[in-house]
Model the fold of this input.
Amino acid sequence: MKVCTDSCVFGAWVTSWANSKKRVLDIGAGTGLLMLMLAQKSSGRIDGIEIEPACFEQLKSNLTLSPWADRFQALKGDVREFQFTQKYDLVVSNPPFFSSDLLSKSGTNRIARHSIELTLAELFETVTRLLTADGNFALLLPFHRLEEAVEFSRNYGLNIIFQVRVFHTRKHKPFRVLFYFGNQPVQEVKISDFVIKNDAGYTPEFVELLKDYYLNF
Done:
């Protein structure tokens, strides 16, 4: 799986809260992008679970070769059935939810890109089971699934703390949404927009967010 701009935005955005978290879980870790980004800004232990065999092997390799290998643990299996021995202060997921889109012909990509193995309802159920009492859940989704995610968060007792609409440019409609959920009461959801590019190139907000990760900034 290639590194996507929206995944990098999500990873950099989540690091705002990672430093205070001692135990972090990435559901659908892929090849480890989010885990590696989080490790650069935090000191806690980070686990990642991945079901697709080829992705899991690449995940293990990437984590082992990183400077933070002693803080990582790669878990292979289905998060719905895996027997976790602890709960987590932060759960993150950039899940394969493009359920209404055309499915890839590749079996690997079908698992990695689409909600064949794990539904959004199952993800929320799993997360609520794995979070500590004051834990948080960060989620990246296609924008057309915003209302669905809002409904599931209510059904499973998670409150939206932050909601960010992501745009390629201001000329385009939003294509991704970032959520940050928690068990704690929220008086008002903080909703904002994030734009990746303008006529001059990358926006100042994009450069500021990604400058510690993108080598050409």
In short: The chain has one domain: 5-210. The helical segments are 5-18, 33-39, 53-64, 107-113, 120-130, 146-155, 204-210. Confidence is low (pLDDT under 50) at residues 98-116.
